[in-house]
Structure of beta-glucosidase:
Amino acid sequence: MSATASDSIMETGTFVNCFLLVISLVIIPVNGGYDKERDALLKGTFPQDFIWSSATAAYQIEGAWNVSDKGPSVWDTLAHQDNNRDTGDVACDSYHKYPADIQLMKQMGLKYYRFSISWPRIFPTGEQQDGVNQDGVRYYNALINELIANDIQPMVTLFHWDLPQVLQDRYGGFLNNHTNTTVIHDLFGDYARFLYQNYGDRVKYWITFNEPWITAWLGYGIGNFAPQHNEPAEGQYKAAHNIILSHAKAYHIYDDEFRAAQGGQVGITLNCDWGTPKTPADADAALRYVQFFLGWFAHPIYKNGDYPEVMKTTMARKAQEEGRTTSRLPEFTPEQKLSISGTGDFFGLNHYTTVEVTDACCTPIENPNYDTDKDVGTGHAPDWPRAASSWLYVVPWGIRNLLGFIKEEYGDPEIYVTENGRSDHDQDPAIMMDMERICYYMMYTNEVMKASNMDNVKVKAYTAWSLLDNFEWLSGYSERFGLHYVDFNDPTRTRYPKASSVFFKQLVRNNGYPEGSEFTKYVENMWYFCHNTTEAEVNGYTGGASQISSLFSLFLAIPMMIAYSLIA
Ligand code: PNW
């Protein structure tokens, strides 16, 4: 991590630079810089039963893309489109190396693991009547049994984007006619039932869909993600509609046929970037941004079975302006609304970043798409640090705002943070002392603790993305999110702990930041450094040692060095 712009401003100390600093503080009073109150370290611990977990997804780690009878998924198709792409053909080879993954979790003291099941590994065509791949069924049985033998609870995602290719070809996947004879809901329901039947005796946490926003918008709207359907005016709205109905179907099957005997929970994982208004005049725009993003799925499922009011009115106005007789946003029937509302036992949240929102009312009506439909502009404050992924700016306080929004908007649900994390570039030498990831987890988990302990948000779980470096979708292996390093050129795919895994282990062991612990002392020493500032800058403190000299406090430096030496 390099010295910040404001550091160098303080060093040169000229009148002009100080003047610029003052001006910049005046211009960006809300989002810019370190805010002494907002950003202060909170000491304390999470509730006793708090769940610490890490996550992966089938296509991103399993490999074994065509073993036994596994069918191809839409991501196999995309990855094999041309020879220049990274593929998930081998990935981390977790299909064979899952016991090693489980030992990493055990090492870290994790008691939960969020992974996904590959639909075409279970039903090669996506349809049970065409046949079941018994090797696939055995694989997930072995994985679940090994987890439980190591005292780790499975949290299973049914769908993390790897749709069976045959379902896309036969029915248009989630574009399957959403008004008349729709089969995709039933097919997803059959798949869900099969998983409950086979694994529900041991799996007590089910997540129907991971980030339907991505599948809908990137998969069926923009079409850069699989299955690459480009229809940005309507594709995402039709796909989202079908996904919501498929989710409801899978929820009711659990409720009606399994809940009494198995006693588990079913939810969905939604992703959302927090939207903060650039100026006070942009407050409505920021709210609209969040409603179009999170509310699109959360409002029907966690509120009243229907899309957010602001989405419906905005889209109705657009229809008029575009000379259409019906809105591009489909409607649910009254029966469908009833069946959708309340279909989440918990609220799964994936969150990584925040955007600054401006009102852009009203965008032109030629080539309308989901982005222009919102009538907002998005940007980033100049001092928000950026991770390796182009979209990932580090804004820790955003997660606290978002958690508070969910509490207020959706009736105070139990929230499971099912993903949060930071990417590095793939580079040589490898980043094993991943201080920026340590800082990210430190700052974001502390904000989650503020939401829990100060704002009374019912946050039940925090899940790090990801246990391992893995196949990062269109970015392939060029972006690394792992707590553990994987050498993708090594046929054995050996895993190596990064420093962040040592940090995370201490965090889990301390269940937060308890007053007086060695761990909390280390975090106190790191706090301003992680926020790209210094104690002197924040408190006007002039004497004493610099922050940097206390960085590698013996307490964590030693285990980090040991972790590092494992790969040297
Ligand atoms: C999530 N974006 O995806 C997924 O659930 C993971 O599979 C993924 O590896 C992780 O976040 C990190 O990207 C996202 O472009 C993919 O804004 C793309 C975006 C956001 C989330």
